[in-house]
Amino acid sequence: MSIHENPRLLVTGANGNLGRATVKNLLLAGATNVVAGSRNTDLISDLASAGANTTTLDFHNPGSLSASFRGIDRALIISLDARQGSPEERVRSQLSAVEAAAAAKVRRIVYTSMHKPEPGALLAVAATHYQTEQAIEQSGIPFSILRVNSYADNVFYWLPPVLASGRWVTAAGNGRTAYIDRLDVARVAAAALTGADELGCLNISGPEALSASDLVSLVKEVFDMSVDLIHVTDEERESGLIAAGVPSPIAKNLAALDATIRDGAFDTANDTVLRLTGTPPRTFAEFLRANRGALLNAAKR
Length: 301
Ligand SMILES: NC(=O)c1ccc[n+]([C@@H]2O[C@H](COP(=O)([O-])OP(=O)(O)OC[C@H]3O[C@@H](n4cnc5c(N)ncnc54)[C@H](OP(=O)(O)O)[C@@H]3O)[C@@H](O)[C@H]2O)c1
Known about the structure:
- This protein has 13 helices and nine strands.
- By secondary structure, it is of the alpha/beta class.
- Helix 2 (45-49) links the parallel strand 2 (34-38) and strand 3.
- Residues 12-19, 38-39, 57-60, 78-81, 84, 93, 112, 148, 150-151, 154, 182 line the site of NADP nicotinamide-adenine-dinucleotide phosphate.
- Residues 12-19, 38-39, 57-60, 78-81, 84, 93, 112, 148, 150-151, 154, 182 line the site of NADP nicotinamide-adenine-dinucleotide phosphate (NAP).
């Protein structure tokens, strides 16, 4: 069977949120040649029941990579989370996956990157994405690099303390972020794997970009709660987080995130999700309304 009729599709990190949702989207769309890769296939037995083949896949284990990529036509390589080892270890692991794809003569790589990862980016995770993007481009394999904006889902990290304290401390100024629901990213990832053409490198963003003051208005509307917006400098943001008990490297990175937002790197609302999937992405307001109860509960903990 030719690739055009029924390409064999691999998704790495299939037990993660994005990987699992992408595999489900592929199966729902009728794909019949899907391989779900995970470090522990016991944890993705539901995907096997739904029709996926499963494979043990660990970026740290070269044998698992060559076995998993064998016979694959198109692969979604899901980037490692910042918690998965040092930046150097993560780059090495991600490059092992790209090398395994090249050795298996995979014909398309889809990779989950971030906005503006080029040298000079302030966020610690940027260099690992940029080096992986470079390796993909140099591999000669046609690619779709999805430079994903901030997940709306990250709101579970940063909004509960704001709801609990009634204070929003930010160094992001009037910078805006076009938050994107992770489930919309999964729909784009499935479309990028199955679509006729490679997409090159493109920003995946939500439909509207919001500043901190827009978010305060939204919190008022959705939670009927007033929040004081407190603008601080980068240094004050970092030292305030450290004083609140946040470990120094994380505090530094959160301050860098604010500075990156302020610089406009995430102000990229676009229609890419609609264009690639035919369905518009969820707005951040819709995401907040749908998760209102869970966010209020998180604020009580
Ligand atoms: N844009 C954003 O705001 C944002 C936020 C958070 C994360 N991200 C990035 O997007 C990626 C996917 O997001 P997510 O929500 O699906 O994250 P997630 O739920 O934490 O899933 C990450 C997955 O990475 C896989 N993984 C971990 N170590 C691995 C290894 N050694 N070899 C192969 N795979 C490994 C795991 O899959 P298995 O358990 O199946 O092996 C894990 O479930 C993240 O990993 C991160 O790079 C972006």
